[in-house]
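Side project, low priority. Logging it here so it doesn't get lost.
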Amino acid sequence: MEALRGWIEEYSDNHHHPVNKRIHLLCIPLLYLGTIGLLTSIPHHFIDKIFPDAVRYFSHFGSIAVIVVLVYYLNFSVLLFFGMLIKSAIILWIVYQIEYNQSLPLWLISLLIFGAGLAGQFIGHRFEGTKPSFLMNVWFLFISPAWLLCNIYRKIGIKC
C-alpha cells in the first residue's frame, strides 16, 4: 500500500483547486466508462468460446480490463478493491445498457464519453494551472481512480 500511497500523493500535488477536484469527480469515471466501452467494442468472438453461456455477455476485452484493474487494486488495498468492484460493476452495467439500448454503435458513444472526460480534465487543469498528470506519466491513468476513491472515502470518514 505504501507504493500506491506515494503515487496518490504525487497525483494529489497537481490537484488542489476545488473546481479541478469537482471536475475530476465526474471526469475520472467518464474516462473509465469510455475506456471500458471502447475495449468492449473490440471484436471478441474467439473469447466467447472460452466462457460459459451464463457469463457470455461479459466475455469481452472490457471485462478483461476490469479484472486486471481489480487485481491491481487488490494488490494494494482491499478497501480500494471493493470500491473499484462496485464502480466497475456499475460501469459494466452502463456499457451493457448503451450497447443494447442505443441506435449508435457502442464504440462511438464510448469515444464521445471518453472525449468528454478528457476535455473536462483539460478544463479542470486550466483552473489548476498545471498539465493533466497523465501527460507527464501515463501510469497516472491507473492511479486517478484510486485517488478519487481515497477522496470519497475521506469525505465519508474512512481512512484510505
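Brief comment: The chain has eight helices and no strands.
Revisit when time allows.
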